Each structure stands twice: as structure tokens, then as C-alpha cells.
């Protein structure tokens, strides 16, 4: 790897993830406004840096950036559950972006393992950063699930509550992945506040809502299931839920601005494109339907009856969250983020369509054959719709 001694090195955990890949891309493209010279070196953590095939898509994305980008990316091995490797990972890094978090494929058999991995990851990264003489600031990815997912206003269907960065949800009534985000963020603040002054780096936390937007490499993972499954015509109907959308490009931009912005340390910041969701899941699917059905797709934007969602909630922990979300729209106060970063968000409609187009570009979706589903089939297959929508809620905030 070519050394650039005047550049700031940034550690990005979970480098192969949806958000992290955008953070890496934007870091490598960042340049001095006067000289045009690059600003950052990037060290990304992955589970097995020696596996060329696993991270081929990431390296190909970086190579396409041109210039010295490929020379300025380094991948190292580090596991959230293991202490080994984190001291060397943070060594020489001025900034740390802790984005990695475990993502279960559906409801895990042992939810405690998901929570343990998230919290252990925070503990290992924070301990290494505290031991380092190099780290000046750490930016951590949390989620709006840490504010609103298990809040009493959900249980009472109270849309009058305006969520701010002061709100915290209850992990005891949240599914495993949102609970892991809540407990990991709480642990982060506990650790940071307990550090001696001489060891305390600066800390900023970003709390994004459901993250959509374009893929930039051929590694869709589970984050865009809410886009991919409808385009494959594998879901016959959709529940009446609203997702608060934020574009992955905006989330990455906020992370990078947070590295150097004065006056933001010690704060958490909401990342959501609208104060109150204007698009339901069904509305988002209709956008894709209107764009791609004229091109030969057979996307169906049917509504799934609320009673079926509530019924399935009794037998599926994946669907239980959806039943609580039916018809519910959160209201967020975004003024703190907008004022601190002078920020304008990409509209959610643009995020939906950019995500769909990128799924075609990278082959995550190919044009499906036309199929017909009876009304009975719609109801029977509604179970699949519920599960996909429930998983998409926390997949889309995945890292």
C-alpha cells in the first residue's frame, strides 16, 4: 500500500456493508477544496481480510473511483466478538467510524447472541480507541430504533409524540436486532462517559431510520429486500405500514461530516429524510411498479388486510413488530441535525427509485416472468409478505 503521510486515516468497521461501502466511497472521493488533493486514507475491517473473493466487489467498486483510491484502501481482519485485532486496527487512525453490527437473517434462535455481538463490538472498538494515542473522534452508527421502536407511543398508537434525540426506546419490548442497536448505543455512551479525561476521544452517534438508496457494488445482502422481493414479483401483497426513509448517501455524508464538524461531539443525531413519513410501504412499491411495469415487469402493489397481519403476529415474532406498526407514522424533529450540519435530505421517492435501478444494474434483480395470483393465494402468501416487510424494517438499518 502506498503511504500518504499528510492524510488522515479513518477506520471503518464492517467495510463490506451497505452503509459502510458508501462511507468508504465518499471518504476516498473527498478532496481539498483548494488543491483538489485527497483527504483520507481508509482502513476497513472485515472478518477475513485474506479472502479475496469475499471482498472482490468492494475492491472493484474502489478501483472504479480511479486515481489513488485503490492505494488508499486497506482491509484488515477484526471480529466483533473477539478482542484480538482491534488494537492494530485503530493504530494510526485519527478517526473511527464504527458502523458494523450483527444482522440476523430473521428472528434468531438465540437473540442474546445478536445482542452480545453488538455490545461486544462496541466494547472492543471503544477499548482499543481509548488505548490508542491516535484516535481523536469516533462516529458510531445506531438507529431510530433506539429512539422509537419500543416507545410507549407505539403501544398506544399515539402519533402526537414528536421524537427527538432525547428519546430512548425499551429494549425489553423490541425485536432482537433493534434491541441490539439500543443496548449497543447505551453501552457506547456508558463507556465514553466513564473514560478518564486523558483517554476520552470525541464521540458522535448517528441514528438513521430505514436506509434505502443505490447499491454501489455487487453485494446487495439483505438491506434492499424491500426493493428486491417486489421486483422479483415474489410478494403478492403488502401490509399497511409506513417506513421513515433516509438515503444511504445522506447517511454516509453525515458520518463523514461528523468526523470533523466542530461542536457535535457528545451528541446523537437523527437521520431521516422527512419529519413524518409520507410514503407507506405500499406507496413505495407503487413507485417501482409505475416505473418498471412499462418495461415488462409484473410488480403488484396489493394491500394486505390488517386482520391477517394481526393474526400472523400470534405465530411469528417477525410479524409481531409489523402488527404494532400498522398505520402508524412516527414524527421526528430533525432540526438538530439540519442546523448542526446545514443539511438537505434526498427525497424518499428518489431513494426508492435509485435503489431499484441499482438492483438491476448489479444483477440483484432480473426481469421476472408474468404470473397471476388468486385472491386466496394473496391471503395465503401474505405470510411471506409480512415476514419480508418485518425483516426489511431492520435489514434496511443494517450495516
Instruction: Give the low-pLDDT segments.
Output: 373-380, 393-399
- The best one-word shape is globular
The overall average pLDDT, rounded, is 85
Main pleated-sheet profile: 7 strands, parallel
Rg estimate, integer Å: 21 Å
Helix content: 40-55%
N-end to C-end Cα span:
26 Å
Beta-strand residue percentage? 5-15%
Structure commentary:
- 41% of the residues lie in helices and 12% in strands.
- It has 399 residues and is of the alpha/beta class.
- A seven-stranded parallel sheet has the order 3-2-1-4-5-7-10, sandwiched between helices. A two-stranded parallel ribbon has the order 6-11. A two-stranded parallel ribbon has the order 8-9.
- The longest helix is centred in the N-terminal third of the chain and has 21 residues, at 111-131.
Summarize the structure.
The chain is an alpha/beta fold.
List the helices and strands and how they pair.
Layout: E1 8-12, H1 18-29, E2 40-46, H2 56-63, E3 73-77, H3 86-90, E4 95-98, H4 111-131, E5 137-141, H5 145-148, H6 152-155, E6 162-163, H7 176-194, E7 202-208, E8 210-212, H8 225-231, E9 245-247, H9 248-260, E10 267-271, H10 281-292, H11 306-313, H12 317-325, E11 331-332, H13 335-341, H14 348-361, H15 375-395
Parallel strand pairs: 1-2, 1-4, 2-3, 4-5, 5-7, 6-11, 7-10, 8-9
Helix pairs in contact: 1-9, 4-7, 8-10, 10-14, 11-12, 12-15
Structure keywords:
disordered C terminus; single chain; globular; seven-stranded parallel sheet; 41% helix; 12% strand; 399 residues; alpha/beta
Amino acid at each position: 500500500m502506498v503511504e500518504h503521510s499528510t492524510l488522515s486515516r479513518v477506520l471503518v468497521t464492517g467495510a463490506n456493508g451497505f452503509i459502510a461501502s458508501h462511507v468508504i466511497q465518499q471518504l476516498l472521493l473527498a478532496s481539498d477544496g483548494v488543491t483538489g488533493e485527497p483527504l483520507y486514507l481508509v482502513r476497513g475491517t472485515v472478518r477475513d481480510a485474506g479472502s479475496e473473493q469475499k471482498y472482490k466487489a468492494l475492491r472493484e467498486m474502489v478501483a472504479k473511483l480511479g486515481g489513488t483510491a485503490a492505494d488508499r484502501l486497506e482491509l484488515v481482519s477484526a471480529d466483533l466478538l473477539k478482542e484480538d485485532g482491534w488494537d492494530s486496527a485503530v493504530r494510526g487512525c485519527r478517526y473511527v467510524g464504527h458502523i458494523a453490527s450483527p444482522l440476523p437473517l430473521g428472528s434468531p434462535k438465540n437473540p442474546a447472541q445478536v445482542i452480545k455481538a453488538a455490545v461486544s463490538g462496541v466494547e472492543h472498538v471503544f477499548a482499543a480507541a481509548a488505548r490508542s494515542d491516535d484516535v481523536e473522534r469516533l462516529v458510531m452508527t445506531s438507529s431510530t430504533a433506539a429512539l422509537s421502536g419500543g416507545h410507549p407511543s407505539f403501544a398506544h398508537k399515539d402519533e402526537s409524540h414528536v421524537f427527538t434525540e432525547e428519546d430512548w426506546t425499551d429494549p425489553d419490548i423490541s425485536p432482537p436486532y433493534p434491541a441490539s442497536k439500543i443496548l449497543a448505543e447505551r453501552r457506547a455512551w456508558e463507556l465514553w462517559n466513564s473514560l478518564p479525561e486523558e483517554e476520552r476521544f470525541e464521540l458522535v452517534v448517528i441514528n438513521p431510520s430505514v436506509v434505502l438508496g443505490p447499491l454501489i457494488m455487487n453485494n446487495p445482502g439483505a438491506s434492499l429486500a424491500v426493493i428486491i422481493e417486489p421486483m422479483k414479483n415474489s410478494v403478492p401483497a403488502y401490509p399497511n405500514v409506513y417506513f421513515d426513509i433516509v438515503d444511504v448517501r445522506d447517511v454516509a455524508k453525515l458520518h463523514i461530516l461528523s468526523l470533523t464538524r466542530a461542536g457535535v461531539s457528545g451528541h446523537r443525531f437523527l437521520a431521516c429524510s422527512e419529519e413524518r413519513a409520507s410514503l407507506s410501504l405500499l406507496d413505495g412499491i407503487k413507485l417501482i411498479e409505475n416505473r418498471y411495469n412499462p418495461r415488462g415487469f409484473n410488480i403488484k402493489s396489493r394491500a394486505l388486510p390488517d386482520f391477517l397481519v394481526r393474526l400472523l403476529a400470534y405465530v411469528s415474532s417477525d410479524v409481531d413488530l409489523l402488527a404494532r406498526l400498522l398505520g402508524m407514522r412516527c414524527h421526528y424533529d430533525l432540526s438538530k441535525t439540519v442546523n448542526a450540519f446545514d443539511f438537505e435530505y434526498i427525497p424518499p421517492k428518489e431513494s426508492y427509485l435509485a435503489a431499484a435501478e441499482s438492483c438491476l444494474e448489479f444483477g440483484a434483480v432480473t426481469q421476472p416472468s408474468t404470473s397471476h395470483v388468486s385472491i386466496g393465494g394473496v391471503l395465503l402468501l401474505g405470510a411471506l409478505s409480512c415476514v419480508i416487510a418485518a425483516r426489511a424494517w431492520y435489514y434496511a438499518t443494517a450495516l
